[in-house]
Amino acid sequence: MKLINDKFLSLLGLCQKARKMVSGSMQCESTIRSGKAYLVIISEEASEATKDEFTHLCTSRDVPFIIFGGKDQLGGAIGKYSRTLLAVTDSAFKEMLLNEYREIQHGGDR
Asked: Are strands 39-42 and 65-67 parallel, antiparallel or unpaired?
C-alpha cells in the first residue's frame, strides 16, 4: 500500500514540475470557476467547512475531486509547505492520478 501511495505522491510532484497544477484555496477556487480544473485533491486534514465548500463547488462544476492525504504529505509531494487543496489543470495527469487513487482504494490489486 505504501508503494502505491508513493507513486500517487510522485505523480503529484511530476504534475507540479510540469506546471499542470495550482495549490491553495484562492488559486484552486479561481481555477475551478474558470473551468480549467480537471481534478481537485482535498487534504483529509482540511476543515469540514473547506471540505464542504470545495466538494460543493466541484460538484456544481462537474469537476471530480478526491479527499486524500495529510497537508504536509500533499505539500511535500509538490515541493512546498503544507497544502490543503490542489487543482490539476491537465487531463492526462487527471487520468493518471485517478487511476492510482483507484489502486489505493482497492488495496493495490492489479
From this structure: parallel
Within-domain flag for 19: yes
CATH number of the domain within which 78 lies? 3.30.1330.30
Task: Yes or no: say if 90 and 19 are a contact pair by the CB < 8 Å rule.
Answer: no
d(CA 59, CA 109): 29
Q: Between 12 and 5, name the one with better pLDDT.
A: 12
Residue 107 CA to residue 52 CA, distance in Å, equals 27
- C-alpha cell at position 30: 479561481
Q: Which one, of 105, 68, 104, lies nearest residue 88 by Cα? A: 68
Residue 28, number of CB atoms within 10 A of its CB: 24
The pTM for the full model equals 0.91
Looking at residue 61, its pLDDT comes to 97
Instruction: Give pLDDT tens digits for 32-77.
Output: 999 999 999 999 999 999 999 999 999 999 999 999 999 999 999 9
Q: Is residue 94 part of a domain?
A: yes
